[in-house]
Amino acid sequence: MSFTLSKRSIVLLLLARVVVGDTLLNIVSNHGLTAGNFVFPVPGTTLNSDAASQYIVQNWDLSASHLDFGANNVVFSPDPSTATSTLVRRARSATSSPAISTAITSPALTDLVGEPPVLRVEYPQGSFSKSTGGTQFYSQPLAGSAAGVSLDNTTSTGQYERMLVAYDIWFPQGYAWNMGGKLPGLRAGPESAGCSGGSETNGTECFSTRIMWRANGAGEVYGYVPTDQKNFCSQSNVICNSDFGTSFGRGTFTFVTGAWQSIWLMVILNEVGVANGVVELWYNGVPALSFTSLELRSASSISSIGGVFFSTFFGGDDSSWASPTDQYVYYRNLQLFAGYGASNGTESNVSSSSHTLSFPSFTFMVFGMISVLGLFLF
């Protein structure tokens, strides 16, 4: 189904391209991420949780034929920046627990105001850790070549050894962060069920790199990667946990509420036997963290980065992490970029010019530029 862009959206899109430039495209080009691209489609109307989960399964190339959990926690709803109300309550049965309900959720508002719908994920009161709230699925829309690929400065088996996931995220005003929660990222390896929930990795079957919010909105990359590499846990901005994942760059950026903000997460595989893997993140177009000497894999059994690990929930593995009330987070402009070739140890950092803010609106968005230009479109 199609939708019509409002005049406001057209103006914003033009401003984004003229004023802040194509920073995301520059990053994609500079890091050789041009071999594959997938823009996750959205429906033309709002959808309740039953229809939304079916839409995701049918159109987002999931590795399984269903969401891992949280099918009742996803809807496609109006953009919260255009809606008069962003909180939608689930109709609970009298016997349902505070954190778990089988009731279908529907957006309270259906008027899209000329904008495409966005994905809304619910985190019910009392929910924490996986199946009690949020949602999770593994999307693999891009497949590499069956043959090897010749490159100028590195080698490739023809699989996608580098990927970047980009999306916009909105936390409503008053969002209660509690101790933290998981957000979508990337994963790799033949084992599709490990590398989360305390299932650690030795670098032969899988690794994962998700985003995480902490108390007061502090952000980080949260990874399940091998931790036995030399001096790994003693690095600045690396916090290892013997039972769970590793924190990269905790607090190097901070999420805000009541506004769209962009996340661009790039991962490049290391050469097997060489600690030269790359994890970099840009928050609202600004470099937030960069690690370029990582051993993400220890064997060629991990031959590529698979795709988007859309894994989001409060937690943490106990009730101290639980959401204190029914809460929602919104996602839009989900895109995936891929390229050939493991890291060769010479990956260039983004130049200082990329510190200029750049935000997607559909592909790019304007955030804060409107007031600077004196254009009051909202």
What is the element layout, followed by pairings?
Elements (H helix, E strand, L loop, with lengths): L6 H14 L2 H8 L5 E4 L9 H11 L14 E4 L40 E6 L11 E5 L9 E2 L4 E2 L3 E11 L9 E9 L18 E8 L3 E7 L13 E2 L6 E9 L5 E9 L8 E7 L2 E9 L10 E10 L12 E14 L28 H5 L5
Antiparallel strand pairs: 1-17, 2-3, 3-17, 4-16, 5-6, 7-13, 7-17, 8-9, 8-16, 9-10, 10-12, 11-12, 13-14, 14-15
Describe the protein's architecture and organization:
By secondary structure, this protein is mostly beta strands. It has one domain (24-82, 113-146, 154-342): Sandwich (Jelly Rolls). Helices cover 10% and strands 31% of the residues. It has 4 helices and 17 strands. A hairpin with a 4-residue loop joins strand 5 (149-150) and strand 6 (155-156). The chain starts with 6 loop residues before the first helix and ends in a 5-residue tail after the last helix. It holds the Pfam family Polysacc_lyase_14.
